[in-house]
Amino acid sequence: MDGTSSVSAGAPLATIDILGRPIAFRIAERMKRFGVDTVYMVGQVDTLKNAPAVPADVQFVAADGAPWRDCEDVFSEVAQSGADLVLVQRIGPYLELDYEDLIGLHLDRRNRVTPVCGTSGDPLGVFCISASRRNDAAFLFRHQLQESRTPCIGYTYRGYCNPLQSGADLRRLTLDALNGTAQLPPAGRQIRPGVWLGEGARIERGARVLAPAFIGAHAVVHPAAVITRFSSVEHHAEIDCGTVIEDASVLPYTYVGAGLDVAHSVVGNQRLLNLPRNVEIEIGDPKLVRTLSEHAPIRALSALASPKRLLQNVLGLRKPQPASLPAAVKAPSAALKSPASLRAAAQSGDSEFPANLMVARRYGNE
Amino acid sequence: METSRPVVVKRMPDRMNHRQAKVFLREVQPFLLCDRPQVVFDLSQVRQLDAAGVDMLLHCMSEVMKRDGDLKLAALSPQAATVLELTRTDRLFEIYETSSDAVRSFTYFLPNAMRPTPKLTVPLSDSNSAEPAKPQGGALAA
Question: Do A277 and A260 touch, CB atoms closer than 8 A?
Fold first, then answer.
């Protein structure tokens, strides 16, 4: 598995949800559709193991520092169990490969190993290997799928390809999937043309979701938030009030604060990757972006009340709220005061202007 | 009539968190409290800007506007530009590509013959372009 990003907390991008389903699972499901008996996944599989709806007949092999050695072992095991052909695919690039066609070419040419190459001849990390050719397989694994033992004619792939090596690739794949360029159906029901909703997702009253867009399972979109222009909000993400998500991907378990403008970006793991500027920033302020807990009770508790507010309630330190509407209207707005954090610093200097002097804004040279 | 009042250019530090914002505000406070202050903040070195930093910028803006002055931002680093865009505060400021452009923009409305060369209190080594100053963001040059 390759293609990691700091927005995915170092996990391979193929293991995180894109439109409700990890690419690794989609590849496994595609293989199963083409008649592959058992799929083994070797590498950083911890997140996939615990993911919901793991495809049937998928076995996980957690690599302990030597993934290629594990690949060799798995190959030997599969060969011994009576398989004729073994398909090896590096989980990273997203391809819509016709495995039947690949196997057909492999058998016709009587190849030992058939690599899949792009139209420009670059290897795509997919191989069809005859199970009897263990030495060829071992050579391939020892060279990390970069070199074959014997030269062989490759299979040229002309379909859709996304290298999925960076956050930008992730965003492009989401966009291509939502506009139908990639055959990557969103995991959810289509509630309106171009709007997909995962199981348990909540769009609160006043929020707007403009097609095409995807809201993942158990995600929450708060009032006055807007999700638009090929945006995806993955499972258990939360978009707070008034925030606009435009041409952006919000990764699983990510909270996006209120009143923000997230455009042309990938947000996750307390980081924001801005694609037009090609800059990634770490956001340490939990009011803006934070990672939500994967444990439902902790999430529920933090959603109910912040510890500060709980303490204020217990000690009775909360400001009394106006009892009636006219009193609330007459109450001075907190927005008219200077920020509390800066008040002390601002008060250190004496103002030259008396408080009762009104300053009128002048324009130009008048 | 516009006179050659000084334009203060202040470079912001690379980290603008709660603590740094307080220190920075204390430093710029005298410039904000003068009559019709003309202030430019250079954000070219800012690598981290959080909500406290944005809060501080808004506070400076409100202080300057109270005194009929103006605060402009210049040479935004990609990180600073991203945070300002994220928090929707980029539209509240006039933003210029360089500090020189921002300084020059204070005399934008004057007829050419009357345009004095503004005095820089904090000299910067930025390149001076001959082009008239153009704001980057949605705000129009006043």
Answer: no
User: Does A259 contact chain B (CB < 8 Å)?
Assistant: yes
Q: Which of B58, B59, B79 sits opposite A281 (nearest CB)?
A: B79
Q: Which domain holds residue A12?
A: 6-162
Answer whether residue B65 shows pLDDT above 70: yes
A297 and A195 together in one domain: yes
Residues of A in contact with B21 (CB under 8 A): 341-342
Q: Is residue A128 part of a domain?
A: yes
Inspect the interface and report whether the beta carbons of B68 and A361 lie closer than 8 Å.
yes
Q: Does a structural domain hold residue B127?
A: no
Residues A40 and A147 in one domain: yes
- Cβ-contact B135, B107 below 8 angstroms: no
Locate A167 and state its tokens: 């956050």
Q: Does A345 touch chain B (CB under 8 A)?
A: yes
Q: Is the pLDDT of residue A195 over 60?
A: yes
What burial class does residue B83 get, using C-beta atoms within 10 Å of its C-beta: 0-12 exposed, 13-18 middle, 19+ buried?
buried
Span A240-270, pLDDT tens digits: 999 999 999 999 999 999 999 999 999 998 8
Q: Is the pLDDT of residue A237 over 90?
A: yes
Residue in B29, B51, B58 closest to A346 by CB? B29
**Nearest-CA distance from A303 to chain B in Å?**
21
Domain with B98 in it: what CATH number? 3.30.750.24
Chain B residues touching residue A364 (CB < 8 angstroms):
109, 142
Residue B79 and residue B46 in contact, taking contact as beta carbons nearer than 8 Å: yes
**Residues A144, A60 share a domain:** yes
**pLDDT score of A72:** 86
A225–B contact, CB cutoff 8 A: no
Angstrom distance (rounded) from CA A10 to CA A43? 13
Q: Is A275 on the interface with B (CB under 8 A)?
A: no
pLDDT value at A294 more than 80: no
Smallest CA–CA distance, residue A244 to chain B, in Å, is 10
Residues B72-128: pLDDT tens digits? 999 999 999 999 999 999 999 999 999 999 999 888 665 555 555 555 555 444 434
Task: pLDDT band for A3, please (50, 70, 90 cuts).
Answer: low
B88: left (phi over 0), alpha (psi -120 to 50) or beta: left
Residues A153, A206, single domain; the answer is no
Task: Report ipTM for this prediction.
Answer: 0.74
Domain span at residue B83 reads 8-114
Q: Which of A261, A277, A364 sits opposite B88 (nearest CB)?
A: A261
- Which tokens is A4 given? 């990691």
**Residues 6 or more apart whose Cβ sits within 8 Å of residue A198:** A20, A187, A188, A214, A215, A216, A217, A218, A219, A235
Task: Specify if B131 maps to a domain.
Answer: no
